[in-house]
Fold this sequence. Notes:
Chains A, B: This is Amidase. 2 copies of one chain form a homodimer. Chain A has helices spanning 235-254, 258-268, 294-301, and strands at residues 2-4, 9-10, 12-14, 21-23, 28-33, 59-65, 73-83, 86-91, 106-113, 118-121, 124-127, 131-136, 143-145, 149-150, 153-155, 166-170, 178-184, 201-210, 219-221, 225-232, 270-275, 281-288. Chain A is mostly beta strands. Chain A has 3 helices and 22 strands. Chain A is globular, with a radius of gyration of 19 Å.
Amino acid sequence: MNIVTSDNNIYAFSAEMKPVLEVSPGERILFETNDCFAGQIGSENDLCTEINFDYINPATGPVAVRGAEKGDLLGVFIEDIRVEEQAVSVVIPGEGALPGKVEKPVTRVVMIDREKGTCTFAGITLPLKPMIGVIGVAPEEGIFPTGTPAAHGGNMDTTDIRKGTTVWFPVRRSGAMLALGDCHAVMGDGEIGCSGAEVPARVTVVLDLLKGLSAPWPIAVTEKEIVIIASEESIERAVTSASEAMTDLVRKALGLSFEDALILCSLSMDLRISQVVDPKKTVRAAMPLSVLPWEKAKAALAGR
Amino acid sequence: MNIVTSDNNIYAFSAEMKPVLEVSPGERILFETNDCFAGQIGSENDLCTEINFDYINPATGPVAVRGAEKGDLLGVFIEDIRVEEQAVSVVIPGEGALPGKVEKPVTRVVMIDREKGTCTFAGITLPLKPMIGVIGVAPEEGIFPTGTPAAHGGNMDTTDIRKGTTVWFPVRRSGAMLALGDCHAVMGDGEIGCSGAEVPARVTVVLDLLKGLSAPWPIAVTEKEIVIIASEESIERAVTSASEAMTDLVRKALGLSFEDALILCSLSMDLRISQVVDPKKTVRAAMPLSVLPWEKAKAALAGR
């Protein structure tokens, strides 16, 4: 087993980043991840206003993938996410979906019962739904803080990025350079308070590589759906980008006119909000595999 | 059984509208509804650019409810939605989530197999998911076209408004004045092409009335969730309104501080897109009943 320990981490995805490990497609990797505060918040007395924001959203990695070149798709199958037993969740004045309403910083510890598959906040028990907040590859150029989502991935905070899902990333630089972190024990779509239940985790993935396939955005393939994940300056623009990408994929994959593809999306595709609180907002378009089989989508992404 | 036939309809919800029927809470009503085109589109040769837009989105009703006064909540339990066997779906240049990309108007007939519970478009079979697009009560003042959603309800195009759901409306005028129509055999969240599978239907509802409860937006209570439905000029503003309303309800109902209510919403509430293509955009905030029981929510809405 390849293990990448949590002291191997980055705070930005950049075109020039150097790998801490090199693996081949098909290999399994265990990523040990920090929580989004890099462990700076250990109790309810540790407030977000008092920590060092240079150490926010670390991602473990990056890992180079042998043979991955620009124009390929890197597949990251999430085999398991094992979270630690204590998560934290916070609100910060000026942050979140209701920034002006938060009068004081608050930190809350969320205790996790892994045996029962639950966690507890304010006396209420919630089912555990572990997911990965930050996951991405090197961008074509420039430097993207790990707290920001974009076309290379990053802080997409998308609940579909969980055990059993494969996330496909368009490779932009040789080796792809995969890094991930910022796991949540549970998070609602929207993440309106600005955090989920932030928790260190051990994430096991198996890599795949498809040569000569391109996509404008990361694509999650769950047991039931193909999910295109778009991040933009506004929710409106993310809605447009996700809608455009799915309509285009449906059109090519199923051999429909643009208008018929749009009607099919109107009837059977769900636009969903991932998060509205990061520097860019994330919206995903989800299509059932029963409508758009992954084999047909792959052929369309290969330009066939 | 009280029956309201589809020739009793309105094209606007107004403060002054007059009922076609008066019933008491607890009564069952069958609404016969037109499709959103008022039957003007019968085949794929009938294009949206050639019909009379004065007759768009008719709602059957209105029905007055005895005893309903401003400050009450009217409950509409949807017992059944029986759709006809042929639906239509359209795209129109300049409309929908990708308005500049639609080059020509297209109408498609969607055939429904009620026995199998499916419908078919472009050779693809989709499960039937009947829902009500337009449902609302008289606004406090003014005139709202039935194509526009707002605080009184209207064209909310929300897939949760289906069989088994109770939709609660804040009553603003004596009698409440319930009307509904614009059913869809199936629609994806977002409705990006600008229509669902538009179909005439027979909708059976049972009414309930709670005295002295107020809410800022319509609330759908499904088998599993409490769903607050907000409609605003932009998706961003609808996100804010839905988030604010749910955080406030959670705070009051569970006796939490604002900050703790926001954290709980961040962890367990889903922000969902209803539609992005009407004159106002609709976003809903959904909270599991396991977190926010309806009895506690009702007490909070009563100010207790």
